[in-house]
Specification:
This protein is of the alpha/beta class and 369 residues long. 41% of the residues lie in helices and 15% in strands. Strand 4, helix 4 and strand 5 form a beta-alpha-beta unit.
Length: 369
C-alpha cells in the first residue's frame, strides 16, 4: 500500500514528513511511503540519502519580490501536473500526506481535482498559504500549534487536531547534565551553559549579535555553545575559547541540548518543538522576513504559554543580551518556570500520534473516497 508524502523546499516542511513516514512504517510495515518534492528544495540533498523512494519535480515558489519570474512557477506546475498523473496512474496512492511549502502545491492541486484523499500537517502558529488553500478538503489537519486552528478557512478547523510537531523524542532517561557539559570541555558543575543557533544554515543577524556580545567579555560563570552555520563559520571561528565552543553545525544537536541551561534561537516551528520536547528555557529572536511573519506568531504563542521569552530582531543588541540572557541565567526560579512551560507544550510523541491517525484513515479508505 503506497502513501505519498509531499512537502519541502525547506527543512521545516521536509523533516516533519520524514518523521511521520518513519512512524507510519513502524506501525504499518505493509505501507510504502513515497516522497514527491522539488528539485530546488532541501529535499534534493536529503531524500537521496534517506531510505525512501522519491521523485523530484521542477517546482518553484511564488516569486513575490520578482513577479516577472513567476513564469517558472506556472511552467513548473504544468509539467509537474502531467508527471504526477503518470506516477499516480502507475501506482495509485491510498492517501497523500502533505506538510506544506511550494513543493506540495502541485500534488495537492492534482489530488483536489481528482478527489484523491489527503491529510495536512501545519507546523506553525500561522498556517502557511498552501495549508490554508487546501485545508477545505483535507480529511484531517494536524497542527503543531493549537493557536492556528481558528485561522483555517471555512469548516477546516472542525477537522484540525492539535498533535504538536513531529520531532525526534529526547532519550529516556535524559543524559546527565554533568556528562554532557564535560563533552564540550566545560566543568561538570558550576556556571551556566547557553546554546545559540539560528537554524540549520545559521543566522547572520544572530551571529553578528552574539559576536559583538562575546567581544564585550563573557562573565566567568557563562559557557557558550554556538552553531554559526557553515557559511558563517569563518567569520566567527576566532571567538573560540575554553568557555566558547564555536561550530559550523551541531549534529547530533542532542549533545548540545543535554548540556545547556538556556537557548537563544530563531522561532522556527521545528526548533521550538525540539526545545519544548527537551524542556529547555529559550529566548527567541524571530526571523522578521519569514512568510506572513509566522516566526513572530510562534514566539508570541510560546511566550503567552510561559514556554519562552522573545526579542524582536530590531531590538536585539549586545546590551539587551546582557540584560535578558544573563538575567535569566542567574535566575533559577525563572529558568524553572520557563522549563515547566516548555514541558507543558511538548508533544514528543507527535509523529507516532499522527501516524496512528493516518493508520485509522487507511483502514477506512474504502468508504472515505
Amino acid at each position: 500500500m503506497r502513501v505519498v508524502f509531499t512537502g519541502g523546499g525547506t527543512g521545516g516542511h521536509l523533516y516533519p514528513a520524514l518523521a511521520i513516514a518513519r512512524a507510519l512504517r513502524a506501525l504499518r510495515p505493509d505501507v510504502e511511503p513515497f516522497f514527491v518534492g522539488a528539485r530546488r528544495g532541501i529535499e534534493q540533498h536529503v531524500l537521496p540519502a534517506s531510505e525512501f523512494p522519491h521523485v523530484l519535480l521542477d517546482l518553484h515558489p511564488l516569486y513575490r519580490a520578482r513577479p516577472w519570474r513567476n513564469w517558472r512557477t506556472a511552467l513548473g506546475l504544468t509539467t509537474s501536473w502531467s508527471a504526477i498523473g503518470r506516477l499516480f496512474a502507475a501506482q495509485p496512492p491510498a492517501l497523500i500526506v502533505a506538510t506544506g511549502g511550494y513543493a506540495s502545491s502541485a500534488t495537492l492541486a492534482w489530488c483536489w481535482a481528482h478527489r484523491v484523499p489527503y491529510v495536512l500537517q501545519e507546523q506553525n502558529s500561522f498556517p502557511g498559504q498552501t495549508i490554508r488553500l487546501f485545508s477545505r478538503r483535507a480529511r484531517e489537519i494536524y497542527l503543531g500549534f493549537p493557536e492556528s486552528a481558528p485561522l483555517l478557512p471555512g469548516d477546516a478547523a472542525s477537522r484540525a487536531i492539535a498533535t504538536g510537531n513531529p520531532v525526534q523524542p529526547p532519550p529516556d532517561p535524559l543524559p546527565s547534565r554533568g556528562g554532557a557539559r564535560s563533552h564540550w570541555g566545560f566543568p561538570e558543575s558550576g556556571g551556566r551553559v547557553l546554546l545559540v543557533f539560528g537554524g540549520s544554515q545559521g543566522s547572520a543577524a544572530i551571529n553578528g549579535l552574539v559576536d559583538a556580545w562575546v567581544a564585550r567579555g563573557l562573565p566567568d560563570d557563562v559557557y557558550l555553545i554556538w552553531a554559526t552555520g557553515m557559511s558563517h563559520f569563518p567569520r566567527h571561528a576566532s571567538r573560540s575559547s575554553p568557555r566558547v565552543v564555536v561550530r559550523e553545525y551541531l549534529s547530533p544537536i542532542s549533545e548540545a541540548y543535554a548540556a545547556c541551561d538556556l537557548a537563544l534561537t530563531r522561532a522556527g516551528a521545528m526548533t521550538t518543538a525540539e526545545l519544548c520536547a527537551w524542556a529547555i528555557p529559550a529566548i527567541l529572536i524571530p526571523l522578521p522576513s519569514a512568510a506572513a511573519d509566522h516566526q513572530t506568531a510562534n514566539a508570541r504563542s510560546l511566550a503567552a504559554a510561559g514556554a519562552a521569552r522573545w526579542i524582536p530582531e530590531r531590538e536585539a543588541t549586545p546590551a539587551r543580551l546582557d540584560a535578558d540572557v544573563l538575567g535569566l541565567l542567574r535566575d533559577d526560579a525563572a529558568l524553572t518556570t520557563l522549563a515547566a512551560g516548555a514541558r507543558a507544550r511538548a508533544r514528543p510523541d507527535a509523529a507516532h500520534d499522527i501516524a496512528r491517525r493516518i493508520t485509522a484513515l487507511l483502514g477506512k479508505r474504502g468508504d472515505a473516497s
